[in-house]
Amino acid sequence: MKRDFALPLLTAALLAASLPAQAATRKDDSRTAALVAALQAVSPDPLGGSLGLAASTIATPTVAPVATKSTFARTTRAVLDQRTYLIWKSSLKS
Amino acid sequence: MRPRFTLLALAAFALLPAAARAFPTAAQIRTAFTALDLSENDAIKPEEWDRASFALFHAADRNGDNFIDPTELAASGIAPETFSRADTDHDGRLSVAEFMAMRRALFEIADIDQDDNLIFVEYELLIVMESVGWTDHNHNGRIEVSELRESLAKAFAQLDADHDGQLTAAEAAYMPEAEFKKFDTDHDGTLSAGEFSSGYRAALLTGE
């Protein structure tokens, strides 16, 4: 008799334990969606409209902590951005 | 009957004031600033800007392949010419790195006092200049005082829907009421071009 209840009870316990994490993820998703909506309401072009067009003619990103325009620094920054983005993105899904 | 009606319609249309370019409202700009300011310190830090930039990239990357490609361009809102210029490796799509490079360039441009933070007035100016543009005369990626003056003059002209040389509160609806009143130094209920420009310069100096 005890065994018959064990699996459903275990499943229910696991589900209950995951609820706060799921709620946190939903909260993150809705917060991100609200952020995007708020930004798009004031800046339909995420790359800055007319300002972005002017900016795009100017060279290169700065690299924290020291501004440098070396190829190595730019490549390092690019890799870091990609990785940081993927971590951020996975935090939305988990 | 018909010709009279047509004439009336035409007359009514001619009397309508010229529609002002659609600027966001003061409430919308404040909402966006607050959403960016995760630490609630009334300033946007570079890392807060980066997080928001990730969210914008994610929203534009509809198929989730970590690139914004030409099929996603129209829905993204990105201007095609900016897309082409931001695509520095010329592979026909924007990577996260290319997108972030542009976003950081915008942050630097907006950070007029160069303190690595965007206060509200700097963010507001960023929104204004996205509509009116900016010319980087000395090609240093920063807004100089003379360049700001030029962009503000363009903004004023664009906002001045009835071209009377004064901005009413309605024409400058993107400005919070308190800011409008602060800029209106002669308290006549309108902003001259001089008050508009001086108001921003003072706000940038005091950080308010």
Describe this structure in words.
The complex is a heterodimer of chains A (94) and B (208). The model of chain A is unreliable at 59-67 (pLDDT under 50). Chain A has helices at 2-42, 49-55, 71-93. Chain A contains three helices and no strands. Chain A is elongated, with a radius of gyration of 22 Å. Chain B is mainly alpha-helical and 208 residues long. Chain B folds into two domains: 23-44 and 120-208, Recoverin, domain 1 (Orthogonal Bundle); 45-117, Orthogonal Bundle (Recoverin, domain 1). Chain B is built from ten helices and four strands; from the N terminus they run αααβααβαααβαβα. The longest helix of chain B has 15 residues, at 46-60. Chains A and B meet through helix 1, helix 2 and helix 3 of A and helix 2, helix 3, helix 5, helix 6 and helix 7 of B.
Tell me, what's the shape of chain B? globular
Number of helices of chain B: 10
Number of distinct beta strands of chain A: 0
Residues in β-strands, percent of chain A: under 5%
Largest interface: pair, residues per side: A-B, 41 and 55 residues
CATH class of the largest domain in chain B: Mainly Alpha
Quote the distance from N terminus to C terminus of chain A.
36 Å
- CA(first)-CA(last) distance of chain B: 59 Å
Q: Strand-residue fraction of chain B?
A: under 5%
Largest sheet: spatial strand order of chain B: 1-2
The helix-strand sequence of chain B is: HHHEHHEHHHEHEH
- Oligomeric organization of the protein chains: heterodimer
Biggest β-sheet description of chain A: none
Structure described in brief:
The complex is a heterodimer of chains A (about 90) and B (about 210). With about 90 residues, chain A is mostly helical. Chain A has 3 helices and no strands.
